[in-house]
Amino acid sequence: MQLIPCPWCGPREETEFHYGGQAHVAYPQDPAALSDEDWAKFVFFRANPSGPLPERWTHSAGCRRWFNAVRDTRTHDLLAVYRLDEPRPVIP
Amino acid sequence: MTRLPDRGVVDRAAPLKFTFDGRELTGFRGDTLASALLANGVHQVATSIKYARPRGIVAAGVEDPTALVQIEAPFPEPMLSATTVELYDGLVARGLSGQGRLATEPDPARYDAEHIHCDVLVVGAGPAGRAAAAEASGRVLLVDDQPEPSGEIPGGVRFLSRTTAFGVYDDGFVLALERRGENAAPERISRRRVWRIRAKRIVLATGAHERPVVFPDNDRPGIMLAGAARTYLNRYGVLAGQRAVVFTTNDSAYAVAFDLADAGARIAVIADARDTVSARLREDAAARGIEIRTGHGIVGTAGGDRVTSAVVAELGATQGDRFACDLLLVSGGWNPAVHLFSQARGTLRYAPELGAYVPDGDLPTVRVVGSAAGEGLPEVKVLWQVPAAESEVDTRFVDLQRDATVSDVLRATGAGLRSLEHVKRYTTIGTAHDQGKTSGLLAAGITAEALGRDLAEQRPTTFRPPYTSVPFAALAGRNRGDLHDPVRVTALHPWHVAHGAEFENVGQWKRPWYYPRPGEDLETAVLRECRAARTGVALMDGSTLGKIDVQGPDAAAFLDLLYTNLMSSLKVGRIRYGVMCGVDGMVIDDGTVIRVAEDRFLVTTTTGNAAMVLEWMEEWLQTEWPHLRVFATSVTEHWATIPLVGPRSRAVLAKVAPGLDVSNDAFGFMTWQDAEVAGIDARVCRISFSGELAYEINVPSWHGITLWEALLAAGAEDGITPYGTETMHVLRAEKGYPIIGQETDATVTPQDLGMSWAVSKKKPDFLGKRSFTRAENLRPDRKQLVGLLPQDPAVLLPEGSQLIETDHVPEPPVRMLGHVTSSYRSAALGRTFALALVRSGRERVGQTLYVPVGAAVVPVTVTESVLFDKEGTRRDG
Ligand SMILES: [Zn+2]
Fold first, then answer.
1. H/E segment holding residue B581
2. Of B164, B245, B395, B783, whose CB count within 10 A is highest?
3. CA B212 to CA B231: how far, in whole Å?
């Protein structure tokens, strides 16, 4: 069972967390202005890389706060954890 | 007698009685069931699963593939390995052919779990493990699966015996199973304990398992791994046979042969697959009068319940000399026990000198030491099988437990399977109780030979937890029965129980389902409860309704983004029904919104969605709209909520709330008022989920029973009737009110439900809005909510039934038009009815469709979804 380092609570077991999908997919400023295709991309399409992926997580059984994490989808290793108002860190 | 007086460390002062296959036998404390059976001369333990061949004891530890037993007493437990069952007084066991029997009665034993953190976890208390534990600093935990360590445990080290580490997971998380008191009084001690260990660093000193070599008839009882015979002799004082043939590919079997010879056994011959043997071993053998045949192997055996002879032949030949024996010892070399290392995602490398996979370097936090790392293991002549002609029935067993042979492997490679994973699945090799501990590498080697491939180029199959089998009872621990999942009950629960309610589980909640009177079944009780609500007065416990307090200066703006309709225009004192959608436009929940103050709302959710909706709110507030100043707080349990329903509800409420003007003018539909009800400060809402005149009375939960009983007393002369969820469902279905999750399944829009009226055209945006104009959501043939009236008014359609266009079921594929989402008998309609999602449903109103039910096809008329009081005249009384 993985340890996920909540930015506020520190490392806790993964069962305390919920996954929230790919991070940095902002809700469009003006959805009405988007074409059907662009809206469908926002709603349904997400990256699925073999490697680092920025993700949203929430510490639902702890502080209930959301944060971002870059996770390597090959190893599940969390390469970085950062607050929502922080930029995505550069992963070497 | 095979128990020697001068060997072994079993406690001879503690004899133990046990029963095997109906025979009463004795052993000693410190025995395993396997060693005690061998001490009693019992070699055949089981029969094989496919061919019913007699099978004995192959190993002395967890790698044994054959000696499978069922424990019958003190408590039935299936599929245990006799080599890992500690003997105790009163044990009753029998041999299995690969399938056991689960207990039919509840297990009286307790199982528990303990969490522990350490700096260093050492797995295995052999010499390498003890040395690693001695060197380690900080909190050191040492676990070993045996009852006693083989040497002194270093000071300051916490030691758990009888504890098998069976799984290594991420971040140093290790699960281990401790066998605590197999036959201890369950009230005093848990039977097994799962240790949930979080270790900063892990040292694996898990040793190595000897592997066999495949030859014809290699499965008879009495054919044993060489090292196992040495363990039975030196640890248990059991001489496994009087006359042994030894077959080896390496030096390690010689020490076994010499120990057995020194203990009084006769070694008939050592067949060594190698061409040369060291001078020292030759001398030691000669000194004991043991003949060695190099370049030889076994090409056949004889015997029924125990081996009686073996044929020793030159490698490549199929004929040789037959040697009488009652024990055939085999050593094909040693496999480092790299299971846990592989589970930790350590990579393995083929070591040709060992004929085995070894760790290819340590992991940052996982180190492998001793023979688990391949250290000190003997070099071998790699030999997976003795070349031998086989007649049509193959008896060259690769996996003894699965009865899988060399022919099975060749059939797999012949069918074109090249990867070990596929061969494993095709042949089932490695999938039995022992998880391939003796068979896995043999199958890999024989597969590589068949494909003309080098094992170094072949990736081994991945090892996965558990390393040894773990009872489900141990994994469940205390989380059984009532402790399996939290049970939530309302403040009124004791009353429901006392008045005979039948309960329905809704999520974790216990909700009254219906209140049967003597002699009533569900149907008659529900018809009576429905009639009371439609003609008199009835009440229910609605406390499980999810309630979220949404406050803050931006609360109204926030709710406008969440709900499909406008909430900011709601006036304080008023109530609005609202629907919530995902960004894909599909309904996720519905409920009512009460405006408590300018900056404060009370939102209700469906019972099962309360947590989901609160998390949904939190997600949007935190991730996308952090500029909104809003708090969302669950207040579900704070309130007892009682809908008071029916034409007489106004009169009943007036009796208990004399200060409240309950007239329609003063207290209109979809408004709320704070008032004293039965002497309690209450919030009364005029909302209706039944279509009847109704009031929903909310009081702090600790006053729930007082209010409930006051309402019952006040309504007594009107025949006030408590009703449960089933009646609630019927009443709302008669009115065409959908239940989110029953009428919907995450593919249904508000428009599909006929709720376009609840979707704002004015708001620039809300969650889901943009999706409503996607082409897919504008298709005229989307499934829409309609009512169904079976043409035979007595026929009740099963929920989930499919709808078709024809009065018979045509040849497949059958076009299905939709399905029945709700179906009930209605007292108000005097007949059965249903709700359904149907393609182009609203266009089909008036049409006849058909519902296959078993062998029959039921004709139904499509109607609007509202089947009762279409004009809505009843809600004002
Ligand atoms: Zn946290």
1. strand B575-581
2. B245
3. 16
Torsion of CA B234, B238, B242, B244, to 10 degrees: -50
Angle of the B610-623 helix axis to the B555-562 helix axis, nearest 10: 110
Task: List all residues 6 or more positions away from B718 whose beta carbon is below 8 Å from its beta carbon.
Answer: B536, B537, B648, B651, B652
Q: Do A66 and B618 touch (CB under 8 A)?
A: yes
Domain B11-95 and domain B493-543+638-731, same fold? Reply is no
Please tell me the CATH code under which domain B11-95 is placed: 3.10.20.440
Q: Which amino acid, B20?
A: F
Q: For residue B471, which phi and psi values (nearest 5 degrees)?
A: -65, 140
Task: Kindly state the DSSP code that residue B772 receives in the 8-state scheme.
Answer: G
First to last CA, chain B: 94
Sheet with strand A18-22: strands edge to edge: A18-22, A52-58, A66-72, A78-82
Band (pLDDT 50/70/90 cuts) for residue B183 is low
Instruction: Give the list of residues 6+ apart from residue A38 with CB closer than 8 angstroms, or none.
Output: A28
In order, the DSSP letters of B227-284 are HHHHHHHHTT-B---SEEEEEESBTHHHHHHHHHHHTT-EEEEEEESSS---HHHHHH
CA distance A2 to chain B (A): 5
ipTM comes to: 0.97
> Is B345 in Cβ contact with A75 (below 8 Å)?
yes
CA B441 to chain centre: 29
Q: How far apart are the CA of A44 and the nearest CA of chain B, in angstroms?
A: 8
Q: Which of B365, B633, B747, B770 would you mutate first to test chain A, the one with the most A CBs within 10 A?
A: B770
Evaluate whether B669 touches B875 at the Cβ level (below 8 Å): yes
* Superfamily holding B546-637: Aminomethyltransferase beta-barrel domains (3.30.70.1400)
Beta-carbon separation of B584 and A44 below 8 A: yes
List, for residues A5-61, the tens digit of each pLDDT value: 999 999 999 999 999 999 999 999 999 999 999 999 999 999 999 999 999 999 999
Distance A15 CA to ligand 1 centre (A): 12
Q: Residue ranges of the alpha helices (H) in B18-97?
A: 33-39
CA distance B641 to B544: 8
With beta carbons under 8 A apart, name residues in chain B contacting A84. Answer: 622-623, 626
Asked whether B692 and B669 are in contact (CB, 8 A), the reply is no
CATH match for B493-543+638-731 among 3.30.1360.120, 3.90.1720.10, 3.40.50.300, 2.40.110.10: 3.30.1360.120
At the topology level, CATH places domain B107-206+333-378 in FAD/NAD(P)-binding domain (3.50.50)
Q: Is A41 left (phi over 0), alpha (psi -120 to 50) or beta?
A: alpha
What pLDDT, in 10s, does the model give residues B732-764? Answer: 999 999 999 999 999 999 999 999 999 999 999
Tokens 């390496």 sit on residue: B250
CB contact under 8 A, B774 and A31: no
Q: What residue ranges do the domains of chain B occupy?
A: 11-95, 107-206+333-378, 493-543+638-731, 546-637, 779-877
Tokens standing for B191? 């039977």
Query: Please, are residues A46 and A5 in contact by the beta-carbon 8 Å criterion?
Result: no
| CATH hierarchy code of domain B779-877 | 2.40.30.110
Residue B393: pLDDT band with limits 50, 70, 90 = confident
Give the best residue of A25, A36, A45, A46 to mutate against chain B (max B CB count within 10 A). Answer: A36
**How many angstroms separate the CA of residue B576 from the nearest CA in chain A?**
26
Residues in chain B with CB shorter than 8 Å from the CB of A43 are 583-584, 771
Cα atoms in the 13 Å half-sphere on the side-chain side of B695: 31
